[in-house]
Amino acid sequence: MTDDGNTRPRATCRVCGDGLEQFLDLGEQPISQAFVEPGADAEEFFFPLVVGVCTGCAMVQLLHDVPRDRMFHHDYPFYSSSSQAMQEYFAGVAREFLDTDLTGDRPFLVEIGCNDGVLLRTIKDAGVRHLGFEPSGGVADVARARGIRVRGDFFEERTAKEVCAAEGTADVIYSANTLCHIPYLDSVFRGVDALLAPDGVFVFEDPYLGDVVAQTSFDQIYDEHFYLWSAESVQATARRFGFELVDVRRLPVHGGEVRFTLARAGRRTPTPAVAALVAEERQRRLSSIDTLRGFAANVARVRDDLVRTLTDLRERGRRVVGYGATAKSATVLNLCGIGPDLVEFICDTTPDKHGKLTPGQHIPIRPAEAFADPYPDYALLFAWNHAAEIMAKERAFTASGGRWLRYVPDVHVV
Questions:
Q1: What is the pLDDT of residue 72?
Q2: CA distance linking residue 41 with residue 286, whole number of Å
Q3: Do 257 and 347 reside in the same domain of the chain?
Q4: Cα–Cα distance measured from residue 270 to residue 400, given in angstroms and rounded to the nearest whole number
Q5: How many domains does the chain fold into?
Q6: Residue 3 pLDDT level (bands cut at 50, 70, 90)
Q7: Where in this chain does the record put each C-methyltransferase domain (predicted)?
Q8: Domain assignment of residue 394, given as a range
Q9: In the β-sheet with 320-323, what is the strand arrangement from edge to edge?
């Protein structure tokens, strides 16, 4: 249930106020990163994970809010730097900003949701002014230990105005895998309006609705991912707050994302990529209720196939363990009712998760070393967005005869 105890779904869009059409119900779900201590007596928080689309601005969004302090707090257990590939990726993003929008006199970059500073450390090392907003205290402390300037707050109108008053306007406001977490976009955009320099850019990248639908990657939907962006919905949202979508770039990270670049209306000429992506979405009828209900039907098919496959493996005496206790895995496990009877444990590289249980289904989480002690017959790959990096690291598993079980875009064995 929501923070006010009301389980009724929202009927109107959080952005424009028009009506919402429900198309997907993923059932009662726990907080995706609320890993459970064995034997803990505390009652877990569950909420209805229901998704709809706005009939006005085409924004796909959750119909129930989860209180932000339940998701983002001192013990938040996700560290962006845990992946070498993502370290390299964000260093590249930072260098691109340094070569383009951060070349003026005393440039200033502000990041919304800087996590452990994976992007900002390159900005810091270049001697450029920067500030990260990060309300999750543990990961913020890691960033500070690296010499990065972090404000332990949520980014919103009030906090953005305070930064502007103290430090002046920002040439770049950037966010990666964070803006989709924030239901209160009105306050965020008013904050961007207050803090962004007249010719500055607001750049954010998040999971892309088009890829989620095409790949049936329904596990991209969980408590933290309140919005699933399309170019059409971003364009409508930007206009509503006095901004303009001036560039889009498809990204191969995290199973398919788009980097959206916004500027104040009339300040920059939109690139041809914007019109091209909007046209592609309209040709696909990406935001139509029929398309999205078709996606929901595919989700049900994958759910049934995965449960059937795991049940068959259990009946044949095969050992299955999970790889990656990700936020995404919470959606899969709880939608499918997958517990320790089907998946023995999940191995993960994050020490803060070791010895705990997955939210909802209570599968034990063990260190990565447990994967080879001994190897299972099958590994269910929850961290599928890092498949290339993981499979390269775990070549000995396949050499020993082990097989990877994947469920995006459908259930198959590798």
A1: 58
A2: 44
A3: no
A4: 52
A5: 2
A6: very low
A7: 252-409
A8: 290-413
A9: 365-367, 346-348, 320-323, 378-381, 403-406, 412-413
